[in-house]
Amino acid sequence: MTKNKIMLIGGHGHVGRIITKNLAPHFPEQLIIAGRNRRTMEQFVADSQLPLQVAEFDITQPIDDTLFTDVKLVVVCIDQVTTDFVSYCNNAGIDYIDVTANTAFYKQLAALPLTEKSAVVYSVGLAPGLTNLMLAKLYENAPSFQRADIKVQLGLADAHGDAAIDWTLNQLNETYTLRGEKNPLKTFSKRRLLELGKTKQPVYLFNFSDQHTLRDQFPNRRITTYLGFDSRVVTGLMHQMQKWRLLPLLNRPFIFKSVKKMMTAKVIGSDAFYAQVATYDKNDQLLQQLTVTGHDEARATGLIAAFLIKKVYATKDPAGFVQIDHYCSFDDVVEAIPELTVL
């Protein structure tokens, strides 16, 4: 049987819908959306009027081989706890793309003995993803950099999915280790400034996975990611909660729900996002800086993922475990997605 299908696990979720709708015109008979709730998926198919197949599939349960007999590429838009499914795809010669930002899962993947029977692609989206490509672009022009700051600002009035908001809030109360650092890092502690002309917006340490993949790619370079929101009040509140050691309060359901409600009220801020990467020499002198902006971060993530999916699908040679820059460059993505603006 010819393997020509693309299975989108979570293709009916917040980001998954954007990916699915973007791919449908290019793959009118090859798309399968998969998940645990058939009713929800069938409702999405009916509402979108797209020619999609539906498959019930629970990624945490034993795998039914018959679901994958004609699948060439799998795209996963949901978080996973184990790497069992990735290993299955790799051993079966099915290309795999992960559209999440889970650092713990990246580290599990990096430790796997993955073969080159198929491609296993990580760092897909805004951060990780676009930010990886931005640093690669700067590296082309100044390969001697010693430090890189990746700064991301999200709009509070943006339509973030529930899973993305929950993940972000859960990360606020975590410490994390970073290659080359002697001590664990605390989210929303150390500050940098996102420079937008005369405006300088504070951003703070955050555990996006791009800094981990990039420190593995560029050993002995200090590459660190920072996050902020377009409201100084909210960004400052997160920092003060860290400073006063109040972030553990987010473990209490009432406080978690209250902070989440504040972040999703859409009474302040906008739907604009910014990603800025700056490189420095050994004396911490600025070498280069690249800034990208756009609206609707989830849509940007979905568009970048859809662009990459088409690239991987068209590539005949398997690649093993790779990042987004194996298939495309920063210039490729910006040219293909006019919704992204380089400042």
TrEMBL record:
Q: Which residues form a coiled coil?
A: none
Locate the Saccharopine dehydrogenase NADP binding domain: which residues? 6-107
Query: Transmembrane segments in this chain: where?
Result: none
An example Pfam family from this entry, by short name, is Sacchrp_dh_NADP
What name does UniProt use for this protein? Saccharopine dehydrogenase NADP binding domain-containing protein
Give the source lineage, highest ranks first.
Answer: Bacteria, Bacillati, Bacillota, Bacilli, Bacillales
